[in-house]
């Protein structure tokens, strides 16, 4: 039993670290970090991190490969969209161009990486310069404002980017709370449905106590989270995009053959190739996906700021990479999952926000972030060492 | 009786949850070659790691008495200072550096901050001569063959003034000629008074060089045999290793009907992928019938793996010519996928490097080559995948608590079974097994042989590549002999003996070594 508790602690180390950090800031900021507005901001400010980290995870899975260009791509794609909307071109056409633009950029980089075997670091470093330059060309060095309200509402910009409350609660967004309860219920039903069917087929199942504890914890967290949002203005539209992306990527990595290939290539590329899998296609897929996510992150970024600026997206690639590594993705590839990157992104977000509320100087904030990333990786390396 | 150089008394070493060594005693006399044998995981390497200080004093119980004094080694450096040098199974050389640089790595000649290159290369050449290498010590490691690299390792040990040399599986990656040369070198060193401990799976080598044999089983020393006072043969050693007598190392195949030709290779020629002028496989012709086990015997470097991989969807080599027919139809397999679709399977010799994804569980490895079999439109059917993994685990008797176990945690024999399961799940008609029993213990070998027999019984064609003569003779219906890229002989199993196969190779070897 003792051993099992240790296993659980190890598996959820980052979750525990996240809780510990939240408690720390809760004490240090006199309770303000968990104010409804701050919980809300944690999501909407960091929307781009969740989206980018999902794409980055696929690249990292293939062997610790990263994409340095995403920050520039965000700016480039966002710039194109902003300029198009500024010229009153149809908003959906602009959105499509931004997404396809991201996809094409991903295909461009993926081609060099997968088929010409340019090391990803170099190929995307080149992209980082080139697309930043192109972004400046598109924006001609100026900020371009966005006035299209449809765009802003759908992608979470401006002031009123929330799902309206259909029940008109007084101080509480009832719709939001209901969504939370429904999501928790769906989760519980799925867990038990799975368990019953697994048992029926005679598979080993986890002990019921563990499953119950886990389910209770997750339901409590989900409901608490939506309750906090309900106390503010409800569900921010960016949360919907985050949710869709995370669900899609959890499905891709966990349930599809392509997801399996990503892990296999990262785990042992030669063995994968000899198993009849074209590893080039796997790399290409990962980078095309990354491009698409950069496109979406570009949309979310300009929507939130209600404008596009030539400096947008700087350092975003690093936030995404950090979220992946803090969330347990292996720097050598083949290990990592979507749940992990969510925790990683939240952890970075909480630390950022907590330090800002405490009024810590921006320069020191960077130092702290650096140390957090290092500690997370050191922990990963040491715990892997012990396994051997 | 000469003096006892090394005595390990009551050594006990525990890892979390496992007792790797339990009260082990080992005595080594000065000037003898002492062989340490045992199945995989018996604790041989752990014992040597204790001796050389890799597991420092304090992490184990018991005493090491060396040269009359009790030693408490904290690091490898401590044991090396005393003249105990260990040569590990995996070569620890830097390919991009020269022989001389490698020999004195961490032990550089010259002053503290300035390497004396003349001294380095001069000294290195001296030691190279002692191990019979004519190469200059300025040659880069990557430019010499594995056999010579192993000799460099030994020269490196000599440069450390070794008095007690420990060789862990020194011949595991060497061909027969190089192995023999290495063993002869050991006998030569013995004459000069050096003491050696050799760990090996190859029992014929043990019989050839050892003065004494200590058998380790399940973390304890079972017995020590003196080769000068006892009659020792391989069967006697095996009995000690497995604790029972194995009457038949190769299970018999019965009632197998050998049918039509399943695969035929004609004039197969392959060039090296980097050195385009080097012919690796030269005009090879062979065929294999339904229900037949065909052995391809050849020394390491004969081109066997290259032949197999070039057939398997051109996964090796450049400028491949020749024809490949499956069931009478000529086919052109451009990549592994096409080969798998043509019902061909290649089970690699290098299961860790080319075969398995060690960080993934058995379940995932089992389905990797046939994801279509467990998915619909690119979505994995988790239930089906699990069931299939369990089915093959039971069928091949893979020892594991669950199919969710990572393959990296399994023993060599069980890893090999997972690899076989992966390829059997692609439902091939023709299986090319490249060294299917390399580095696995006697018991697991027997089980692999049984699997091969079952495959033949199902009417599949098996091509078994091996560099172990008894295995080739014991398992095959027909044997091809390969040397220097060519097939130099073909014989029925009944006609084959170790002598006439070796004769075949010796006759065909025309100057230069098989590299």
Give a description of the structure.
The complex is a heterodimer of chains A (388) and B (515). Chain A is mainly alpha-helical and 388 residues long. Helix content of chain A is 75%, strand content 1%. Chain A has a two-stranded antiparallel sheet with strand order 1-2. Chain A is globular. The model of chain A has no long low-confidence stretch (mean pLDDT 91). With 515 residues, chain B is α/β, with parallel strands linked by helices. Chain B folds into 3 domains: 4-242, Rossmann fold (3-Layer(aba) Sandwich); 248-343 and 428-515, 3-Layer(aba) Sandwich (Rossmann fold), CATH 3.40.50; 353-427, no CATH class. Chain B has a 6-stranded mixed sheet with strand order 6-9-10-3-11-12, with helices on both faces. In chain B, strands 18-21-22-15-23-24 form a 6-stranded mixed sheet, sandwiched between helices. In chain B, strands 2-1-4-5 form a 4-stranded antiparallel sheet, covered by helices on one side. Chain B is globular, with a radius of gyration of 24 Å. Chain A binds chain B through residues 201, 203-204, 255-258, 260-261, 263-264, 267-268, 270-278, 334-335, and chain B through 312-313, 315, 335-337, 339-341, 346, 348, 353-360, 364, 368-369, 371, 375, 378-380, 382-383, 386-387, 402, 422.
Strand order of the largest sheet of chain B: 6-9-10-3-11-12
CATH class of the largest domain in chain B: Alpha Beta
Quaternary state reads: heterodimer
Outline the biggest β-sheet of chain B.
Answer: 6 strands, mixed
Query: What overall geometry of chain B do the principal axes of the alpha carbons give?
Result: globular
The total count of strands of chain B amounts to 24
Sheet with most strands of chain A: 2 strands, antiparallel
Name the helicity range of chain B: 25-40%
Radius of gyration of chain B: 24 Å
Number of domains of chain B: 3
Q: Assign a percent range to the helix content of chain A.
A: over 70%
Q: How many strand elements of chain A? A: 2
- Give the structural class of chain B: alpha/beta
Per the CATH scheme, the topology name of the largest domain in chain B is Rossmann fold
């Amino acid at each position: 039993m003792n051993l099992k508790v240790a296993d659980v602690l190890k598996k959820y180390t980052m979750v525990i670290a996240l809780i510990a950090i939240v408690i720390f800031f809760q004490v240090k900021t006199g309770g303000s970090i968990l104010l409804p507005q701050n919980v809300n901001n944690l999501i909407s400010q960091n929307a781009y991190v969740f989206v980018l980290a999902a794409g980055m995870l696929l690249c990292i899975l293939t062997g610790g490969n990263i994409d340095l260009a995403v920050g520039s791509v965000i700016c480039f794609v966002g710039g194109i969209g902003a300029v198009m909307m500024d010229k009153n071109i149809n908003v959906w056409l602009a959105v499509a161009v931004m997404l396809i633009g991201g996809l094409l950029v991903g295909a461009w980089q993926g081609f060099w990486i997968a088929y010409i075997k340019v090391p990803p670091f170099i190929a995307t470093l080149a992209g980082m310069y080139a697309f930043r330059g192109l972004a400046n060309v598109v924006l001609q060095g100026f900020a371009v404002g966005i006035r299209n309200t449809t765009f802003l509402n759908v992608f979470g910009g401006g002031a009123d980017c929330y799902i309206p409350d259909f029940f008109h609660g007084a101080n509480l967004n009832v719709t939001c709370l209901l969504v939370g309860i429904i999501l928790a219920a769906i989760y519980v039903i799925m867990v038990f449905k799975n368990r019953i069917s697994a048992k029926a087929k005679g598979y080993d199942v986890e002990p019921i106590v563990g499953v119950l504890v886990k389910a209770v914890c997750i339901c409590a967290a989900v409901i608490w989270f939506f309750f906090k949002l309900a106390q503010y203005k409800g569900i921010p539209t960016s949360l919907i995009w985050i949710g869709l992306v995370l669900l899609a990527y959890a499905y891709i990595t966990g349930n599809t053959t392509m997801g399996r290939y990503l892990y296999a290539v990262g785990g042992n590329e030669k063995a994968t190739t000899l198993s009849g899998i074209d590893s080039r296609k796997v790399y290409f897929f990962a980078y095309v996906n990354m491009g698409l996510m950069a496109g979406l992150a570009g949309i979310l970024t300009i929507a939130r700021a209600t404008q596009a600026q030539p400096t947008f997206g700087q350092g975003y690639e690093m936030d995404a990479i950090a979220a992946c590594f803090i969330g347990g993705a292996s720097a050598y590839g083949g290990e990592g999952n979507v749940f992990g990157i969510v925790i990683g992104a939240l952890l970075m977000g909480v630390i950022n926000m907590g330090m800002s509320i405490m009024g810590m100087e921006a320069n020191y904030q960077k130092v702290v972030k650096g140390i957090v990333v290092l500690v997370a990786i050191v922990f990963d390396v040491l715990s892997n060492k012990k396994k051997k | 009786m000469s003096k006892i150089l090394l005595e390990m008394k009551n050594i006990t070493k525990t890892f979390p949850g496992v007792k790797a060594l339990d009260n082990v005693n080992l005595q080594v006399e000065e000037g003898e070659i002492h062989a340490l044998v045992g199945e995989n995981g018996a604790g041989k390497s752990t014992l040597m790691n204790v001796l050389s200080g890799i597991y420092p004093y304090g992490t184990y119980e018991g005493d090491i008495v060396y040269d009359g004094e009790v030693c408490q080694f904290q690091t490898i450096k401590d044991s090396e200072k005393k003249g105990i040098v260990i040569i590990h199974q995996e070569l620890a050389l830097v390919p991009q550096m020269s022989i001389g640089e490698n020999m004195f790595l961490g032990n550089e000649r010259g002053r503290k901050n300035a390497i004396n290159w003349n001294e380095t290369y001069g000294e290195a050449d001296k030691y190279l001569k002692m191990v019979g290498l004519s190469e200059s010590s300025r040659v880069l490691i990557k430019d010499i063959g594995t056999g010579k690299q192993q000799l460099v390792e030994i020269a490196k040990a000599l440069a450390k003034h070794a008095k007690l040399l420990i060789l862990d599986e020194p011949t595991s990656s060497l061909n027969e000629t190089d192995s023999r040369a290495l063993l002869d070198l050991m006998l030569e060193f013995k004459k000069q008074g050096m003491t050696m401990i050799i760990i090996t799976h190859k029992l014929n080598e043990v019989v050839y060089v050892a003065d004494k044999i200590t058998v380790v089983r399940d973390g304890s020393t079972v017995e020590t045999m003196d080769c000068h006072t006892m009659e020792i043969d391989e069967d006697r050693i095996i009995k000690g290793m497995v604790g029972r007598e194995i009457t038949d190392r190769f299970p018999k195949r019965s009632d197998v009907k050998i049918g039509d030709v399943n695969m035929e290779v004609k004039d197969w020629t392959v060039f090296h992928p980097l050195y385009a002028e080097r012919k690796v496989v030269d005009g090879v012709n062979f065929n294999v019938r339904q229900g037949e086990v065909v052995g391809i015997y050849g020394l390491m470097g004969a081109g066997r793996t290259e032949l197999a991989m070039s057939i398997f969807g051109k996964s090796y080599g450049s400028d491949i010519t020749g024809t490949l027919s499956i069931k009478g139809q000529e086919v052109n397999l451009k990549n592994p996928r096409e080969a798998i679709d043509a019902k061909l399977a290649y089970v690699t010799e290098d299961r860790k490097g080319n075969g398995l994804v060690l960080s993934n569980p058995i379940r995932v490895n089992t389905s990797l080559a046939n994801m279509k079999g467990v998915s619909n439109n690119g979505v994995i059917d988790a239930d089906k995948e699990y069931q299939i993994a369990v089915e093959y685990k039971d069928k091949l008797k893979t020892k594991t608590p669950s199919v969710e176990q990572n393959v990296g945690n399994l023993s060599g024999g069980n890893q090999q079974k997972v690899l076989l399961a992966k390829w059997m799940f692609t439902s091939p008609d023709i299986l090319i097994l490249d060294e299917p029993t390399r580095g696995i213990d006697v018991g697991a070998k027997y089980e692999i042989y049984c699997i091969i027999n079952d495959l033949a019984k199902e009417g599949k064609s098996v091509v078994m590549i091996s560099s172990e003569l008894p295995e080739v003779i014991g398992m095959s219906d027909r044997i091809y002999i390969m040397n220097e890229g060519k097939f130099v002989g073909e014989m029925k199993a009944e006609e084959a003996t170790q002598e006439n196969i070796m004769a075949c190779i010796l006759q065909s070897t025309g100057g230069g070594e098989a590299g």
